[in-house]
Amino acid sequence: MATGQMLNLFRVAPEFLLCIAGIIIMLLDPFVGPARKRWLGWLGFAGALFALLAVHRAYDSQGFAYDNLISTDVFSVFVHSVVIIAAALAILGSIDYLEREGIQRGEYYALVLFGAAGMGILAGANELVTAFVGLEMSSISTYILVGFRRKAAASNEASIKYFLLGSFATAFFLYGISMVYGATGTTYIDKVAAALQSGQPSDLNLAVLGLGLIFVGLGFKTVIAPFQVYGPDVYEGAPTPVTAFLASAPKVSAFALMLRVFYVSFGSASDFWFWALLISAILTMCIGNFAALVQTNVKRMLAYSSIAHAGYILVAFAASTTLGVAAVLFYLAAYVFMKVGAFLIVTHLGQQGERRLDIQDYAGLGTRQPVLAACFSLFLLSLLGLPATGGFLGKFFAFQSALDAYSTHGKWIVWLVVIAAINSVIGAYYYLRVIISMYFAEPSRDYIPSSVAPALVVAIFIAAVGTLYLGILPSGVLAFAQRAADSLPLH
Amino acid sequence: MLHQPLLLSVITFLPLLSVIALLLLRSEDHVWIRRIALTASLAEFVVSLLLLRNFDPNNAAFQYTEYHNWIGDTIHYHLGVDGISLFLVLLTTFLTPLAILCSWNSIQENVKGFFLSLLVIETAMIGVFVSLDLFLFFVFWELTLIPMYFMIGMWGHDERIYAAVKFILYTMFGSILMLVAIIWLRQLAGTFDLDGIEQYLASTTLSHRTELLLFGAFFLAFAIKVPLFPLHTWLPDAHTNAPTAGSVILAGVMLKLGTYGILRFCVPLFPEAAHELSHLIGALAIIGIVYGALVATVQTDLKRLVAYTSVSHLGFVVLGIFAFQTTAIQGAIYQMLNHGVSTGALFLCVGMLYDRRHTHEIKQFGGLATPMPVLMSFFLFVALSSLALPPLNGFIGEFMILIGTYLGHHAWASWAASGAVLSAIYLLWAYQRVALGEVTVEKNKTLPDASTRERIILVTAALAILFMGIASPLFTRRMEASVNSVVERVNQPVNASQPPRAPGVGAKSTAQAAMPATNRSASLAVLETRGRQ
Hints:
The complex is a heterodimer.
Chain A: H1 4-11, H2 13-28, H3 38-60, E1 63-65, E2 70-72, H4 74-101, H5 106-124, H6 128-146, H7 153-184, H8 189-198, H9 201-222, H10 230-237, H11 240-265, H12 270-293, H13 298-318, H14 322-349, H15 365-368, H16 370-384, H17 390-404, H18 406-409, H19 411-440, H20 454-472, H21 475-486
Antiparallel strand pairs in A: 1-2
Helix pairs in contact in A: 2-3, 2-5, 3-4, 3-5, 4-5, 4-11, 4-14, 4-20, 4-21, 5-6, 5-11, 6-7, 6-11, 7-9, 7-10, 8-11, 9-11, 10-11, 10-13, 11-13, 11-14, 12-13, 12-19, 13-14, 13-17, 13-19, 14-16, 14-17, 14-20, 14-21, 16-19, 16-20, 17-20
Chain B: H1 7-24, H2 30-53, E1 63-71, E2 75-81, H3 83-102, H4 111-130, H5 134-143, H6 145-155, H7 160-189, H8 194-203, H9 208-225, H10 234-241, H11 244-269, H12 271-297, H13 302-321, H14 326-357, H15 373-386, H16 393-408, H17 410-435, H18 452-470, H19 472-497, H20 503-513, H21 517-532
Antiparallel strand pairs in B: 1-2
Helix pairs in contact in B: 1-2, 1-4, 2-3, 2-4, 3-4, 3-11, 3-14, 3-19, 4-5, 4-6, 4-11, 5-7, 6-7, 7-8, 7-9, 7-10, 9-11, 10-13, 11-13, 11-14, 11-19, 12-13, 12-17, 12-19, 13-14, 13-16, 13-17, 14-15, 14-16, 14-18, 14-19, 15-17, 15-18, 16-17, 16-18, 19-21
């Protein structure tokens, strides 16, 4: 077909547009005066919107691109949409934050876009080395973003920590790929499964070892136990809009790749990795929730809460059914809206230099800024899992898909769901603590409320609407997630 | 049957619509916020009365049903009322205007938020009573929590935060396990719809263990809400620290969500487990009755005292349900309504005292009948209703429960009856300490008597108490068909598949034989309609 090359391009158009937008911003940056730099942010936002349109276009031209390296299926389209929405919201939340902190630079937006492009590659990769390129692209961008507040020691520390540990993790990932290649002779995700079935038992062991190493690498990116240790420090040290981005998009895309590798390549080994995921899920939930209980810093508390949420996602993941995949995807979509929304509000309330992050600093917000407090409560209640919010349905579908897998996994999965359920009640305590402070405590005197910048208002509004929409009218997104799950070539 | 296809949706969401109206007002506009909230709740009450018009008392099935797909093809928007839920809906719409009226002056801070929460709770509670889809039920069930949490935490008394957190954590812990059970049930039956689940459970028998676990998960959630001894510890704290309106709603309606859930889901869906555990639950209920009464006797805080009476009275309700006998269950439902009105009114009286003196300490009162004869007369009247004096409403409920229980379990009934005696002790003693004798505290001498607004509230409550005491057949007649169908369903497997285990079961069948002819024909009609389905 003459349009073969064009089709290739359509199938990677989102990444392509994201990179183009990033490059344009970098090129324009030297010519834009400091007072106008904020327009580069809007340019980045526009780039993300175009990429979202391109995702829509890619949906119409599904198939493999560039010699089967990239698979543009409904699954990839779903994850792309979520990642790009997260990036767009993070950019909106950053514009005034960077102004306030005096670090308004074009690179920032370019890095977010490059990172999002890398995550897009992760979502669509059908080949492990391509996936590695995507992983590196997203990692390196985020390493720099984390350290973007150059003058703040915490930011630097976080960046170094993230960089050092992240490099180890990607090395593990790469090592895993090489073992899988050694065992099966291929790095194509969809061909590994067939190779495994025809291969020798010793090869199988090697491949499973490779899978374990891949699990380490991706576990680091999704911040699940026992690879979660770095998470809270990095999340706390990073500039808050970056935390919003970091807690959402890379997690979503790494989970997407994990789904592809585990379900498509190693679907036949699900008896083996089920146990790894089960243990990891229990650890992740418990560590995340119990550690969050004792936090007094809201940003750090939200960081631990995002660890806990990764645990709930693993519950659906462990189901090892298409229903489980759909539940993971739906959860990720809901999670992005509520988590980004919550972090963006923290961005605003932190005030200059991110001074006001303590729970006490939120005292009396309910009377001072009722709308902002109401939005924050909405996100917190969604994270808690209260009905009529996306967070509840995410949890609900996760539990449902896990219990539906009862016939394959037996009573252990029931226990997993019960532990997850009890954990979500434990979680209620620390989310409600913030609400208590906002509504039930006397306002602190030294706090001067500042009005929320328009860009941030838009971002928070989108996140709030998304959270409610997914909670009340989830049918559309749920059907989309189901089709995405069905589009994976499971064996 | 489908006369007004949208009536239930309107009733459920009308308060939520008025919330939107409230949101449009400025928060300083206190007068209009109160007026609109009151008007909306009164309109809601009037609309809900329309339910009575076309309600067919001989039909055990759900009426005014609405059925739409909501999420996917397993989760539906399915509403309906039957004889069990009909009056609970009316109770909710009756108490909400009273709760709004009683907060007219006592709530001065963040007035908008307060009335907003009250109306959201109303929607959520009605939603619980009319949902026929377990998912929808759970959504409404959880939605009741957050506004109540705010109500206690923001407008409550001294230890409000502790009480609010305790309230919400307790309830959430129960309900999350219920959620797991609901999902499990869906996995078995393939639907969240109550009809579908009933059909599934009628066609298959669950394994013994499954049934016990499912029953346990549901029952735990409901028992915490009721609250059944020993899960009651959140209740006194929540009540003592809640604002008056919060206590009225909490005691008046919210506790009934638990007993309603037991009657709607636990007992009819898992009859075997219900029978198996009925002795344990009956014992807990009786402990609750006696313990609640004893603890209430020694309270020094008037509001805490009233709170413990709830533990005692709700024990009666649970006992009545687990007698698995038509009269007892009718009595239990009636007792739910009575408790809602009487205890609601008690809290209203206590709240009026609090508005004047800002304390609940009994020691701070004494001889109040002298400065405020009207308020104290109503207090006595309400207390008499609560301690089940004939011909007031409380008597009917307790009597029906005791009669029904006695047929099956003599011992249960006699123990429970002691609770009725104890209630006379603690309520009359409390009244004596508060109202009779010399005025002991100087400040109390000049307290104003009930204002016009307060008189309206008290007269309304008193009329309801009197009406329910005299005209009880108007209520029980409409419950009968639905209750019969529950009783049939509960006793069927036991009678059919197992020989009577306890003497109680044998006695129960004779009790059914002794039912009036109308009862039997009603239950036969139920059986026939079910057979046709």
